[in-house]
Design goal:
The complex is a heterodimer of chains A (458) and B (270).
Chain A: H1 4-52, E1 61-63, E2 69-75, E3 79-84, E4 98-104, E5 107-116, E6 121-128, H2 129-165, H3 167-178, H4 197-252, H5 261-285, E7 296-299, H6 300-310, H7 312-317, E8 321-326, E9 330-333, H8 335-352, E10 358-366, E11 369-375, H9 411-421, E12 425-430, E13 437-444
Chain B: H1 2-29, H2 36-53, H3 55-64, H4 66-95, H5 100-128, H6 133-163, H7 166-194, H8 216-225, H9 233-269
Helix pairs in contact in B: 1-5, 1-6, 1-7, 1-8, 2-5, 3-4, 4-5, 4-7, 4-9, 7-8, 7-9
């Protein structure tokens, strides 16, 4: 079944047509039979009338008559006293009391033959069958026509009524369709009909269970963050202390010449681990399904300036120049998420741009959209890799990735999450300088949907 | 006039509607595209009007037996198409997609032929009354009543078939199509008798007192199994032979596609 509405319309209308038409036919047949009886009684009455009329004694009278009625009045069986002009000279039908059907004058006639005992003569009255049939047909047709004409009206009414009856189903479908992945509030169906109640109830129960499980996961991630951050911080402190103690020892006993290599490697590894944990948490936090976005008016240009300033040490360490261009770029966005996005883009640019390279950041309004573009002068990415670089832990070149560049392959996944959150589009390309990667993100100026602005609990 | 026109239109519409609803319902079960049926219907209607407009030329062909011969040809063609359709349905049911385009094409041609034949009869009948305005309204009312009843039965029958489980629908469709096909052959034989290609004979029996052909059940049976109150020996023979042929063919396909399915796991194991 493709559509309940079409099914109900066709099935109901077919039933109505079948029942009504068959009973109309039955009615037609019954009325026709009734009409024939009525006409027969009329024939008999005409015969009575002719019997009562005074008859001539001499030559037969011929009465001018229209074509639908013919009659003969006989004295005995031999002498014709009176006839209509369209009746033959000889008797129309055999002299036997009653009705019969006879052909003469090129038509079929219904004939009533009557014997009048007081005059000892016969009267025969005939009526054209086709004409009286047509007359009856015409009268009875009038009663059949409304049934026929009523069918389109019934169809329209059924269509409307069924549509009304299915409106709560449509409402439910609409409510389900409109639901965003992260919206797990119960379905807003007021007074659902009895038939839909189980569906609404079980869907709402399912949504509640899903919400509970999301809540558990969110709590787990927050807990995991704390649990991981604390020992890592402790390790960092211990490594630092160890370094200080070793230096002290170096001063006291000249035997230890310098701080061992492994300590430096330990510190590097701890830094990378800190970064990885932060990135994993950012990735989880910014998942559009879970992220409790709080949209507010902000200037992306201003935000970019702040973030560049914050990461300035990293650029300075590689002797890179950073240029911020464009102008005021107001939009409705989540400040925290956008800061993470900028940090990741700037971090990537910093990592992949060689010593003394150039990085360009654009933020400006273009029509109804706000555009952010970050271009580096690194090695760039081959176009075939574009679709894959948003995958988690994916790194260009796979195992042959330049390991001198630190990173965990999560940065662009996080960027994609945040872009999705803002209904923004990401476009990858080549830098204007001819090499290096250009990441362009187009944000809509308005908040994507009013119900996205949830309450933050992180 | 009303009753006559009801019977004539109902008989033609019902026959086409039943064939269409059986084929449509099986198409839905076999997940064939049903949208093409509109094209097939349209083609049939256009063909019917063309047939009706050129009736004189067609009738005069073959020494005045052109119309009978064309009708007989159309009906035999539908039977032959059904001989192709029903076994293909069984094979598709047992071993999945098999020559689906051929099946779909045969269905569409069968529907178009059926609509063309039945539609042309209705068209010719109705256009004969166009010049008689005093009868026309009665004839048209009768035609609408007959068409309404015919289409309603077809639609309800379609939903009945859809409501059954897949297996029963196929079984029922197979039986009905066998009967409808045999009915087409019997009617074609009747046409050939009218054209003097087959000898005229005295009827074998007469059941018109028991079940008149003109009654609604009589019409329904006519559309389903080509019920005739006074069949001639030739018609009865043609009817029985067409049924036997279809049953034999079905039995054979059923057996072959069944053993194919049973051998399937072994074949995969090798």
């Amino acid at each position: 079944m493709k559509s309940i509405r079409v099914f109900l319309l066709v099935a109901l209308l077919s039933t109505i047509i079948l029942v009504n038409f068959v009973s109309a036919l039955h009615g037609y047949r019954a009325s026709m039979a009734e009409a024939q009886q009525l006409f027969d009684r009329q024939l008999a009455a005409t015969a009575q009338l002719l019997t009562a009329m005074p008859q001539p004694e001499t030559a037969a009278i011929v009465v001018r008559q229209t074509e639908d009625l013919a009659f003969q009045v006989w004295a005995g069986k031999e002498r014709l006293l009176m006839r209509s002009s369209n009746a033959p000279q000889e008797s129309i039908a055999p002299f036997e009391e009653g009705y019969r059907e006879i052909n003469f004058s090129g038509y079929r006639w219904r004939v009533f033959t009557h014997f009048a005992p007081e005059r000892r003569g016969w009267v025969q009255v005939a009526e054209r069958i086709d004409l009286r049939y047509r007359l009856a047909d015409k009268m009875i047709l009038e009663s059949v026509l409304p049934i026929l004409l009523g069918i389109p009206v019934a169809g329209l009414l059924i269509w409307l009524v069924v549509g009304r009856g299915l409106s709560s189903l449509r409402q439910l479908a609409g409510a389900l369709q409109k639901k965003r992945a992260e919206d797990l509030t119960p379905l807003p169906l007021e007074e659902p009909p009895e038939e839909l109640l189980p569906v609404v109830k079980s869907t709402n129960a399912l949504l509640a269970r899903l919400q509970a499980s999301f809540d558990r996961e969110r709590r787990f991630s927050a807990d995991a963050a704390h649990e991981l951050r604390t020992p890592i911080s402790a390790i960092r402190v211990h490594a630092h202390n160890l370094e200080l103690e070793l230096r002290d020892l170096q001063h006291q006993h000249r035997s230890i010449e310098e701080v061992p290599d492994s300590l430096g490697k330990l510190k590097g590894s701890v830094e990378r681990m800190t970064h990885l944990v932060e990135q994993i948490l950012d990735l989880y936090r910014t998942t559009p399904d879970h992220y409790p976005a709080r949209f507010e008016p902000l200037d992306l240009y201003q935000l970019a300036r702040e973030e560049i300033a914050e990461s300035y040490a990293a650029f300075a360490a590689k002797n890179q120049s950073v240029e911020l261009r464009g102008g005021a770029a107001p939009l409705l966005g989540d400040r925290f998420a956008l800061a993470i996005l900028l940090k990741n883009l700037l971090g990537n640019a910093n990592k992949y741009t060689p010593e003394a390279g150039h990085i360009e950041v654009w933020a400006r309004t273009e029509g109804e959209r706000v555009t952010l573009r970050v271009e580096d002068s690194g090695p760039g990415i081959p176009e075939a890799e574009y679709p894959r670089i948003f995958e988690r832990f994916y790194r260009v070149g796979g195992d042959r990735h330049d390991t001198s560049v630190e990173g965990c392959g999560l940065g662009l996944s996080i960027v994609q999450h945040i872009a999705q959150l803002h209904h923004a589009q990401i476009e990858l390309g080549q830098s204007a300088s001819g090499q290096g990667l250009s990441v362009r993100i187009d944000f809509p100026q308005q908040a994507p949907l009013p119900n996205v602005a949830g309450e933050g609990d992180d | 006039m009303l009753l006559t026109s009801v019977i004539i239109v109902l008989r033609e519409v019902l026959e086409a509607a039943l064939l269409l609803s059986i084929l449509l319902a099986t198409s839905r079960f076999m997940q064939l595209r049903t949208r093409w049926f509109y094209a097939s219907l349209a083609f049939g209607v256009v063909g019917a009007v063309a047939y009706g407009n050129n009736l004189t030329a067609i009738s005069n062909a073959f020494d005045g037996t052109g119309q009978e011969l064309l009708d007989a040809f159309l009906q035999f063609a539908i039977y032959l198409l059904l001989l192709l359709i029903v076994p293909l349905m069984v094979i598709n049911h047992h071993r999945g997609a098999y020559k689906r385009n051929l099946l779909q094409g045969a269905m569409l041609v069968a529907v178009a032929f059926a609509v063309l034949r039945e539609g042309s009869e209705v068209y010719v009948y109705l256009s004969a009354f166009r010049t008689q305005p005093d009868l026309y309204s009665s004839v048209m009312t009768g035609a609408l009543l007959g068409a309404g009843i015919g289409f309603s039965i077809g639609a309800l029958f379609y939903y009945l078939l859809l409501g059954l489980s897949r297996h029963y629908t196929l079984l029922l469709a197979g039986i009905l199509l066998t009967l409808v096909g045999a009915g087409m052959c019997a009617q074609a034989a009747q046409m050939l008798i009218q054209a003097d290609w087959l000898p005229a004979q005295a009827p074998l029996w007469d059941t018109s007192a028991l079940l008149p052909e003109g009654s609604l059940p009589g019409q329904l049976l006519y559309a389903l199994v080509s019920y005739e109150a006074t069949p001639t020996p030739i018609e009865v023979i043609v009817y029985s032979v067409s049924i036997s042929l279809m049953v034999l063919l079905l039995g054979f396909t059923h057996y072959v596609s069944r053993s194919y399915r049973q051998n399937l796991p072994e074949a995969r194991a090798h």
